[in-house]
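Revision sheet: C-alpha coordinates.
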Amino acid sequence: MKKRKVKVKSFIILGVVIILLIGGIILLTKITQNKKEDAQSSPNQEEIEKEQPQSSPSQEEEEHQGSPNEEETNKEPKETPPVSKYTDEKQEKLAKLDNIQNELDYFKMDYLDRYIAYSEKNPTLSKKDVVIRVNIGLDQEYYTNTKQSPYLNQNYILSNKYTSLGEYVPENLEEVSASCSSGTRLLVHEARVAFENMCNKAKSDGYTIQVMSAYRSYQYQVGLYQRYVDRDGVKEADTYSARPGFSEHQTGLVADIDNGSIAYTSFHKAKEYSWMKENAYKYGFIERYPEGKENITGYTYESWHYRYVGVDIATYIHEHNITFDEYYVQFIEGKK
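Predicted:
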Protein backbone atom coordinates (compact mmCIF):
# COMPACT_ATOMS: atom_id res chain seq x y z
CA MET A 1 0.00 0.00 0.00
CA LYS A 2 2.82 2.30 0.97
CA LYS A 3 4.73 1.52 -2.25
CA ARG A 4 1.64 2.32 -4.28
CA LYS A 5 1.40 5.82 -2.71
CA VAL A 6 5.02 6.60 -3.50
CA LYS A 7 4.58 5.57 -7.08
CA VAL A 8 1.48 7.80 -7.49
CA LYS A 9 3.36 10.78 -6.01
CA SER A 10 6.25 10.28 -8.46
CA PHE A 11 3.86 10.31 -11.41
CA ILE A 12 2.35 13.62 -10.19
CA ILE A 13 5.75 15.28 -9.87
CA LEU A 14 6.77 14.05 -13.31
CA GLY A 15 3.55 15.45 -14.77
CA VAL A 16 4.14 18.88 -13.19
CA VAL A 17 7.71 18.95 -14.61
CA ILE A 18 6.43 18.05 -18.07
CA ILE A 19 3.76 20.77 -17.88
CA LEU A 20 6.38 23.33 -16.80
CA LEU A 21 8.68 22.32 -19.67
CA ILE A 22 5.89 22.60 -22.20
CA GLY A 23 4.92 26.03 -20.80
CA GLY A 24 8.54 27.18 -21.00
CA ILE A 25 8.86 26.01 -24.59
CA ILE A 26 5.66 27.86 -25.57
CA LEU A 27 6.84 31.10 -23.85
CA LEU A 28 10.24 30.91 -25.53
CA THR A 29 8.63 30.37 -28.87
CA LYS A 30 6.44 33.50 -28.44
CA ILE A 31 9.40 35.65 -27.40
CA THR A 32 11.41 34.54 -30.43
CA GLN A 33 8.46 35.20 -32.71
CA ASN A 34 7.98 38.76 -31.30
CA LYS A 35 11.66 39.61 -31.91
CA LYS A 36 11.38 38.56 -35.52
CA GLU A 37 8.29 40.71 -35.99
CA ASP A 38 10.07 43.76 -34.43
CA ALA A 39 13.05 43.23 -36.70
CA GLN A 40 10.83 43.16 -39.77
CA SER A 41 8.90 46.34 -38.83
CA SER A 42 12.01 48.48 -37.81
CA PRO A 43 14.77 48.84 -40.49
CA ASN A 44 18.34 48.80 -39.22
CA GLN A 45 20.77 51.81 -39.38
CA GLU A 46 22.23 50.72 -42.70
CA GLU A 47 18.79 50.64 -44.30
CA ILE A 48 17.96 54.05 -42.78
CA GLU A 49 21.11 55.57 -44.31
CA LYS A 50 20.33 53.99 -47.64
CA GLU A 51 16.86 55.50 -47.59
CA GLN A 52 18.25 59.05 -46.90
CA PRO A 53 17.60 61.29 -49.95
CA GLN A 54 20.74 61.91 -52.06
CA SER A 55 19.98 65.63 -52.28
CA SER A 56 20.99 66.11 -48.63
CA PRO A 57 24.69 65.32 -48.35
CA SER A 58 26.36 64.91 -45.01
CA GLN A 59 27.98 67.89 -43.28
CA GLU A 60 31.40 66.71 -44.42
CA GLU A 61 30.22 66.56 -48.01
CA GLU A 62 28.60 70.01 -47.73
CA GLU A 63 31.83 71.58 -46.46
CA HIS A 64 33.77 69.99 -49.27
CA GLN A 65 31.36 71.14 -51.90
CA GLY A 66 31.14 74.72 -50.54
CA SER A 67 34.89 75.32 -50.17
CA PRO A 68 37.05 74.89 -53.26
CA ASN A 69 40.35 73.19 -52.55
CA GLU A 70 43.63 75.05 -52.65
CA GLU A 71 44.44 73.93 -56.16
CA GLU A 72 41.18 75.34 -57.51
CA THR A 73 41.64 78.60 -55.55
CA ASN A 74 45.12 79.21 -56.94
CA LYS A 75 44.08 78.67 -60.52
CA GLU A 76 44.54 81.92 -62.52
CA PRO A 77 41.48 83.11 -64.43
CA LYS A 78 41.64 82.52 -68.11
CA GLU A 79 42.63 85.65 -70.06
CA THR A 80 39.97 87.00 -72.36
CA PRO A 81 41.15 88.62 -75.57
CA PRO A 82 41.08 92.47 -75.41
CA VAL A 83 38.10 94.09 -77.06
CA SER A 84 38.86 97.15 -79.19
CA LYS A 85 36.99 100.25 -78.04
CA TYR A 86 36.86 101.44 -81.63
CA THR A 87 34.81 100.08 -84.47
CA ASP A 88 36.50 98.79 -87.60
CA GLU A 89 35.42 101.97 -89.37
CA LYS A 90 37.06 104.15 -86.72
CA GLN A 91 40.20 102.02 -86.75
CA GLU A 92 40.41 102.57 -90.49
CA LYS A 93 40.11 106.33 -90.08
CA LEU A 94 42.61 106.44 -87.22
CA ALA A 95 45.10 104.59 -89.39
CA LYS A 96 44.90 107.47 -91.87
CA LEU A 97 46.08 109.74 -89.06
CA ASP A 98 48.95 107.39 -88.15
CA ASN A 99 47.05 106.37 -85.00
CA ILE A 100 48.21 109.47 -83.15
CA GLN A 101 45.23 109.54 -80.78
CA ASN A 102 47.37 108.12 -77.97
CA GLU A 103 50.26 110.51 -78.61
CA LEU A 104 48.31 113.76 -78.39
CA ASP A 105 46.31 114.37 -75.23
CA TYR A 106 44.39 117.10 -77.06
CA PHE A 107 43.18 114.66 -79.74
CA LYS A 108 39.36 114.67 -79.75
CA MET A 109 37.62 111.55 -80.98
CA ASP A 110 34.49 113.61 -81.64
CA TYR A 111 36.50 115.51 -84.28
CA LEU A 112 37.72 112.39 -86.09
CA ASP A 113 35.74 113.00 -89.28
CA ARG A 114 36.85 116.63 -89.29
CA TYR A 115 40.49 115.60 -88.92
CA ILE A 116 40.16 113.20 -91.86
CA ALA A 117 38.49 115.77 -94.10
CA TYR A 118 41.02 118.50 -93.23
CA SER A 119 43.93 116.11 -93.74
CA GLU A 120 42.67 115.18 -97.20
CA LYS A 121 42.36 118.87 -98.13
CA ASN A 122 45.83 119.63 -96.74
CA PRO A 123 47.98 116.57 -97.55
CA THR A 124 51.28 118.40 -96.91
CA LEU A 125 50.43 119.09 -93.26
CA SER A 126 51.69 116.76 -90.55
CA LYS A 127 48.99 114.83 -88.75
CA LYS A 128 49.84 116.74 -85.56
CA ASP A 129 49.28 120.07 -87.33
CA VAL A 130 46.00 118.75 -88.71
CA VAL A 131 44.76 118.02 -85.18
CA ILE A 132 45.94 121.39 -83.86
CA ARG A 133 44.33 123.40 -86.64
CA VAL A 134 41.03 121.56 -86.49
CA ASN A 135 40.97 122.09 -82.71
CA ILE A 136 41.46 125.81 -83.34
CA GLY A 137 38.50 125.66 -85.72
CA LEU A 138 40.31 126.36 -88.98
CA ASP A 139 38.39 123.68 -90.88
CA GLN A 140 35.27 125.85 -90.52
CA GLU A 141 34.29 129.30 -91.70
CA TYR A 142 35.31 132.21 -89.48
CA TYR A 143 32.73 133.22 -86.89
CA THR A 144 30.83 129.93 -87.21
CA ASN A 145 30.31 127.47 -84.33
CA THR A 146 31.78 130.02 -81.95
CA LYS A 147 32.12 129.42 -78.22
CA GLN A 148 32.48 131.59 -75.14
CA SER A 149 36.00 132.12 -73.81
CA PRO A 150 36.22 130.23 -70.48
CA TYR A 151 39.26 131.87 -68.87
CA LEU A 152 38.18 135.41 -68.10
CA ASN A 153 40.61 137.57 -66.13
CA GLN A 154 43.49 135.20 -66.84
CA ASN A 155 46.66 135.95 -68.80
CA TYR A 156 45.92 132.96 -71.05
CA ILE A 157 42.40 134.07 -72.01
CA LEU A 158 41.77 133.40 -75.70
CA SER A 159 40.04 135.65 -78.18
CA ASN A 160 39.95 134.75 -81.87
CA LYS A 161 37.43 134.30 -84.67
CA TYR A 162 36.00 131.18 -83.01
CA THR A 163 36.08 132.30 -79.37
CA SER A 164 33.99 135.19 -78.09
CA LEU A 165 34.39 137.45 -75.08
CA GLY A 166 30.81 138.71 -75.26
CA GLU A 167 30.60 142.04 -73.45
CA TYR A 168 33.31 141.09 -70.96
CA VAL A 169 35.10 143.84 -69.04
CA PRO A 170 38.43 142.82 -67.44
CA GLU A 171 39.30 143.49 -63.83
CA ASN A 172 42.15 145.70 -62.61
CA LEU A 173 42.44 148.01 -65.59
CA GLU A 174 45.08 150.65 -64.93
CA GLU A 175 46.46 153.59 -66.85
CA VAL A 176 49.87 153.18 -68.45
CA SER A 177 52.38 155.81 -67.36
CA ALA A 178 52.67 158.87 -69.61
CA SER A 179 56.35 158.10 -70.29
CA CYS A 180 55.34 154.82 -71.97
CA SER A 181 52.15 155.86 -73.82
CA SER A 182 50.93 158.42 -76.32
CA GLY A 183 47.78 159.22 -74.36
CA THR A 184 45.39 157.68 -71.85
CA ARG A 185 45.84 153.95 -72.37
CA LEU A 186 44.54 151.18 -70.10
CA LEU A 187 45.99 147.72 -69.46
CA VAL A 188 45.28 145.03 -66.87
CA HIS A 189 47.57 145.55 -63.86
CA GLU A 190 50.04 142.74 -64.59
CA ALA A 191 50.32 143.68 -68.25
CA ARG A 192 50.79 147.36 -67.38
CA VAL A 193 53.64 146.65 -64.97
CA ALA A 194 55.34 144.33 -67.49
CA PHE A 195 54.99 146.81 -70.33
CA GLU A 196 56.41 149.69 -68.32
CA ASN A 197 59.39 147.53 -67.32
CA MET A 198 59.94 146.65 -70.98
CA CYS A 199 59.52 150.28 -72.04
CA ASN A 200 62.10 151.48 -69.50
CA LYS A 201 64.57 148.75 -70.51
CA ALA A 202 64.19 149.75 -74.17
CA LYS A 203 64.91 153.36 -73.24
CA SER A 204 68.06 152.37 -71.38
CA ASP A 205 69.15 150.50 -74.55
CA GLY A 206 68.46 153.59 -76.67
CA TYR A 207 65.03 152.65 -78.11
CA THR A 208 61.60 154.23 -77.84
CA ILE A 209 58.44 152.14 -77.56
CA GLN A 210 55.07 153.44 -76.45
CA VAL A 211 51.47 152.29 -76.32
CA MET A 212 49.32 154.01 -78.93
CA SER A 213 46.24 151.77 -78.41
CA ALA A 214 45.34 149.35 -75.60
CA TYR A 215 42.04 148.35 -73.95
CA ARG A 216 38.92 148.77 -76.09
CA SER A 217 35.43 148.12 -74.77
CA TYR A 218 32.83 146.05 -76.57
CA GLN A 219 30.89 149.19 -77.49
CA TYR A 220 34.00 150.92 -78.81
CA GLN A 221 34.67 147.94 -81.09
CA VAL A 222 31.09 148.09 -82.40
CA GLY A 223 31.73 151.57 -83.79
CA LEU A 224 35.28 150.89 -85.00
CA TYR A 225 34.41 147.70 -86.87
CA GLN A 226 31.39 149.32 -88.49
CA ARG A 227 33.54 152.18 -89.83
CA TYR A 228 35.88 149.68 -91.43
CA VAL A 229 32.97 147.74 -92.93
CA ASP A 230 31.49 150.95 -94.33
CA ARG A 231 34.82 151.80 -95.89
CA ASP A 232 36.06 148.39 -97.14
CA GLY A 233 33.16 145.95 -96.86
CA VAL A 234 32.74 142.99 -94.49
CA LYS A 235 35.11 140.58 -96.25
CA GLU A 236 38.02 143.01 -96.30
CA ALA A 237 37.34 144.42 -92.84
CA ASP A 238 37.40 140.91 -91.36
CA THR A 239 41.02 140.46 -92.47
CA TYR A 240 42.33 143.22 -90.21
CA SER A 241 39.61 144.11 -87.69
CA ALA A 242 37.79 141.93 -85.16
CA ARG A 243 34.05 141.86 -84.86
CA PRO A 244 32.60 143.16 -81.57
CA GLY A 245 33.16 140.65 -78.78
CA PHE A 246 36.05 138.98 -80.63
CA SER A 247 38.74 141.64 -80.27
CA GLU A 248 41.88 140.91 -78.27
CA HIS A 249 41.97 144.55 -77.22
CA GLN A 250 38.91 143.83 -75.08
CA THR A 251 41.05 141.56 -72.84
CA GLY A 252 43.08 144.54 -71.57
CA LEU A 253 46.21 142.51 -72.36
CA VAL A 254 47.08 144.06 -75.74
CA ALA A 255 49.29 147.01 -76.61
CA ASP A 256 49.58 148.42 -80.12
CA ILE A 257 53.06 149.95 -80.26
CA ASP A 258 54.86 152.65 -82.19
CA ASN A 259 58.09 154.57 -81.66
CA GLY A 260 56.61 158.04 -81.75
CA SER A 261 58.31 158.82 -85.08
CA ILE A 262 56.70 156.73 -87.80
CA ALA A 263 53.19 155.37 -88.31
CA TYR A 264 52.42 152.25 -86.32
CA THR A 265 51.57 150.39 -89.55
CA SER A 266 55.23 150.76 -90.51
CA PHE A 267 56.57 149.61 -87.14
CA HIS A 268 58.29 146.63 -88.81
CA LYS A 269 60.65 149.13 -90.47
CA ALA A 270 61.72 150.74 -87.20
CA LYS A 271 64.82 149.66 -85.29
CA GLU A 272 62.53 149.23 -82.26
CA TYR A 273 60.84 146.34 -84.04
CA SER A 274 64.10 144.35 -84.08
CA TRP A 275 64.54 145.07 -80.38
CA MET A 276 60.99 143.84 -79.65
CA LYS A 277 61.59 140.64 -81.62
CA GLU A 278 64.58 139.88 -79.42
CA ASN A 279 63.26 141.04 -76.05
CA ALA A 280 59.45 141.16 -75.85
CA TYR A 281 59.08 137.53 -74.65
CA LYS A 282 61.38 138.25 -71.68
CA TYR A 283 58.63 140.53 -70.35
CA GLY A 284 55.75 138.20 -71.21
CA PHE A 285 54.72 139.73 -74.55
CA ILE A 286 54.32 138.01 -77.92
CA GLU A 287 53.81 139.31 -81.44
CA ARG A 288 50.21 138.12 -81.72
CA TYR A 289 49.75 138.24 -85.52
CA PRO A 290 53.18 137.43 -87.00
CA GLU A 291 54.10 137.35 -90.65
CA GLY A 292 53.58 133.97 -92.31
CA LYS A 293 50.95 132.85 -89.78
CA GLU A 294 47.94 134.60 -91.30
CA ASN A 295 46.23 131.30 -92.15
CA ILE A 296 46.30 130.37 -88.47
CA THR A 297 45.55 133.67 -86.73
CA GLY A 298 42.96 134.76 -89.32
CA TYR A 299 44.42 138.28 -89.46
CA THR A 300 46.90 140.08 -91.68
CA TYR A 301 50.41 140.61 -90.37
CA GLU A 302 50.54 143.23 -87.58
CA SER A 303 54.06 144.04 -86.46
CA TRP A 304 52.72 146.52 -83.88
CA HIS A 305 50.24 144.27 -82.07
CA TYR A 306 51.66 142.72 -78.86
CA ARG A 307 49.81 140.54 -76.41
CA TYR A 308 50.72 139.84 -72.79
CA VAL A 309 50.57 136.10 -71.85
CA GLY A 310 53.20 135.88 -69.11
CA VAL A 311 56.91 135.04 -69.35
CA ASP A 312 56.61 131.24 -69.39
CA ILE A 313 54.08 131.07 -72.21
CA ALA A 314 55.77 133.86 -74.17
CA THR A 315 59.12 132.08 -73.92
CA TYR A 316 57.70 128.79 -75.22
CA ILE A 317 55.96 130.53 -78.12
CA HIS A 318 59.14 132.44 -78.99
CA GLU A 319 61.34 129.33 -78.89
CA HIS A 320 58.95 127.17 -80.93
CA ASN A 321 57.84 129.85 -83.41
CA ILE A 322 54.14 129.15 -82.98
CA THR A 323 51.07 131.31 -82.46
CA PHE A 324 49.13 131.70 -79.24
CA ASP A 325 46.22 129.85 -80.89
CA GLU A 326 48.44 126.79 -81.40
CA TYR A 327 49.80 126.98 -77.87
CA TYR A 328 46.30 127.34 -76.43
CA VAL A 329 44.83 124.14 -77.91
CA GLN A 330 47.87 122.10 -76.89
CA PHE A 331 48.45 123.30 -73.35
CA ILE A 332 45.52 125.33 -72.04
CA GLU A 333 42.18 124.31 -73.49
CA GLY A 334 40.35 122.04 -71.04
CA LYS A 335 43.36 121.79 -68.71
CA LYS A 336 43.23 124.92 -66.59
